[in-house]
Amino acid sequence: MTVTPTRSDQHRALGLSTFAFTLCFAVWTIFSIIGIRISEDLGLSDTQLGLLMATPILTGSISRLFLGIWTDRYGGRWVFGILMLTTAACVYLLTFASTYPMLLVGALGVGLAGGAFIVGVAYTAAWFEPSRQGTALGIFGAGNVGSAVTNFGAPFLLVAFGWEKTAQIYAVVLAIMGVLFILLAKTDPLAEQRASAGHRPFAEQMAPLRELRVWRFALYYFFVFGAFVALALWLPHYLIGVYGLNIQTAGMIAALYTIPASLFRILGGWLSDRYGARRVMYWTFLASVVCTFLLSYPPTEYVIHGIERDIRFSLEINLMLFVVLIFILGFFMSLGKAAVFKHIPVYYPMHVGAVGGVVGMIGGLGGFVLPLTFGVLNDVTGIWQSSFMLMFVIATAALAWMHFAIRSAERVEWAANEEKTDLPELTSSRTSTHSS
């Protein structure tokens, strides 16, 4: 770093960026609640509802690539502030939409809120030394709890004021935060270094994307973040359909998933600093495979033809067990989200925005593709649990690829008689991730 930040400046930057990201994430997932009312008003199918929920995720995902590059170039203070003001205007304009196509167009603008993630990652990472970046980014990433803010608060606003007023309230709050961020945030310590380096060509900024490692990170993030966003959007609808809950209760139960899937990201950052991010990824995928397998089991009636009579019994996941399983799933996914982004500032310190933007974009695309796919699977199969069946397949594939990559790297090391791994934190149980 060109300038060594004070602890006060570090805490200021982290606090502002985390709070701003929390509000942006709340806006980004707003259709998980208002979409249900819109669906009732317009008589939408599950596929149409899934598309409406997923459309903001598409914009937020794709915009991360460009916003990451702009943040590398111009710094996070202005990019973050202007992004919030622009998004607030789009959310307010959404309330004038009266048809399904108009709502889809409005949802594209709302989705800009999702791009705040990579802006905040690049801005926050610039303030911290490498040994504390994992913890700092874990705290920042806990802004995912914004989805819980929406699941808790939006149902009550929706019932009291309707979906239009709910969206307008969100727009005003986000606009105020955008102004405050520009006024209160400081220019990050890497600004002088970026200015002296000049504007690098686009091809140079994208050069790290030729490495397969970047795309492995992207697959991991497709699950731990993309599936998190998808479930944050889908769970209220799922709970209403499967367990017959009202929208307020469904929103509160969905928050039991989104809160641990957000706040425990802080723990994930600390664990990644302490024990290594790849080890945390193993914990994440193993637990996710088990949880999604159990959640994917549909209510089933069994008949055993006995000697004297038939024996009948049924198996299904009741509401209490469902809540426990999604809490566990959310907990481990939060660890995985922190572990993925632990690596990027280490491997690509001058390309955090570009590489993080691509990884975040792929992960965000999971949040776009999966809710839409959940709706299609519901309409095609008629089985609610088909969404978790799909997640089980993705988690298993990611775990298998990760393990294969580790074993391949180990074979290369053994052949060369070197103690040097694909991921530096595995070099030694006590070696820092920043030693190579």
From TrEMBL:
It is a multi-pass membrane protein. It comes from the Bacteria. Residues 12-410 form the Major facilitator superfamily (MFS) profile domain. It is found in: Membrane. Its main location: membrane. One of its GO terms (molecular function) is nitrate transmembrane transporter activity. Keywords: Membrane, Nitrate assimilation, Transmembrane, Transmembrane helix. Gene3D superfamilies: MFS general substrate transporter like domains (1.20.1250.20). One of its GO terms (cellular component) is membrane. It holds the Pfam family MFS_1. The chain crosses the membrane at residues 12-36, 48-67, 79-97, 103-125, 137-161, 167-185, 214-235, 247-268, 280-297, 317-340, 352-377, 383-404. The keyword Transmembrane applies. One of its GO terms (biological process) is nitrate assimilation. PANTHER family: HIGH-AFFINITY NITRATE TRANSPORTER 2.3. Belongs to the major facilitator superfamily. Nitrate/nitrite porter (TC 2.A.1.8) family. This is MFS transporter. It comes from Marinobacter halophilus.
